[in-house]
């Protein structure tokens, strides 16, 4: 555990140190996020923060190869992840500078995901029913789909200061603890694990960046940051489900068999839900699914009455309850976990709907007062000159 915590700390410190540099370069190069109707900010803010995050991840991942404890992890898959990260870094910076067409960005995402799959990180078994995917082409295609889907899901929720980075820290930490404890359960002698390393890097990069990105943000992560989060989160999830030794551990060591698919979905529930809703909404309007609008979940919360920070903190709570609720199913009695999670989610639903409930009650009371005044006026005798 100490090695992974050191990875988190070093990545966080490096990300924290590089983010001001990225901000300075963004200001000097005038690489700003434009102020559009759908955006929450009202003044230009530089958007190269994701580059600092990506450089931190690549640097610490490279340094990790010198640590004997992690030596067994550094094989072809790590090289593939490094190449994929560099692809997204270059493409993301280019998009921040010149606003690339969505087809070019999509092609870059597919290329990065394809490199990861070609390096050996693939969905080799579907956790539902333990259906093994024997065909290599099918493995690669499914892996590309999962990674690209996750990249765009996190890209879609990156609309409020600190939202994407904070959700990644909370969800990534849930995945980190699950992956680490799973590794200890399966192998009592070697705790090194690729998924745990990737989530440690992700948590560290986001923690170091978050102080500059939380409302009021001084820098945005841009395309690089959101895509990096999606790549690391999805790759960590695929690495867990592709570990056939882990699958045996799920079967024979009393670890719930549905966790390999439940946990990634739980951790990424918010981004995936927002992605699905956005695609349905835009398709219904007969526009491209990649066309930006102001209909995301975080926009609705702010429009409903929450402040910028309140909306972000509320979505943090949702991520925590769902993510850690799923992890708790592995280590605590399911009835207790489901009961506590249900109560917590019920309270969160009420908290989420609170502005609308208050507004509805206000208008109901207002209408009652108006009706009472109208009835009172109707009962008053009308005065006339003939009296």
Brief synopsis:
The protein is mainly α and 387 residues long. The protein contains 14 helices and 4 strands.
Low-confidence parts lasting 5 or more residues at pLDDT below 50?
A: 244-258
Mean pLDDT: 80
* Gross geometry: globular
Radius of gyration from the alpha-carbon trace, in angstroms: 24 Å
Could you tell me how far the N terminus lies from the C terminus, measured between alpha carbons in angstroms? Answer: 94 Å
Assembly classification: single chain
Structural class: mainly alpha
Features:
387 residues; mainly alpha; two-stranded antiparallel sheet; 14 helices; 2% strand; globular; membrane
Give me the secondary-structure topology.
Layout: H1 2-28, E1 32-33, E2 45-46, H2 49-64, H3 76-98, H4 102-118, E3 125-126, E4 131-132, H5 136-157, H6 163-186, H7 194-213, H8 222-241, H9 244-252, H10 259-267, H11 269-284, H12 297-304, H13 308-331, H14 334-379
Antiparallel strand pairs: 1-2, 3-4
Subcellular location: Cell membrane
Transmembrane segments: 6-27, 48-67, 73-94, 106-125, 137-156, 163-182, 194-212, 224-245, 257-280, 313-332, 338-357
Keywords: Cell membrane, Membrane, Transferase, Transmembrane, Transmembrane helix
Task: Write structural notes for this entry.
The protein is mainly α and about 375 residues long. The chain has one domain (about 1-300). It has 14 helices and 4 strands. The strands form 2 sheets. Strands 1-2 form a two-stranded antiparallel ribbon. The longest helix is centred in the last third of the chain and has 46 residues, at about 335-380. The protein is globular and about 95 Å long. The model is unreliable at about 245-260 (pLDDT under 50). It is a multi-pass membrane protein. It is found in: Cell membrane. This is MraY family glycosyltransferase. InterPro entries: Glycosyl_transferase_4 (IPR000715), PNAcMuramoyl-5peptid_Trfase_CS (IPR018480). Keywords: Cell membrane, Membrane, Transferase, Transmembrane, Transmembrane helix.
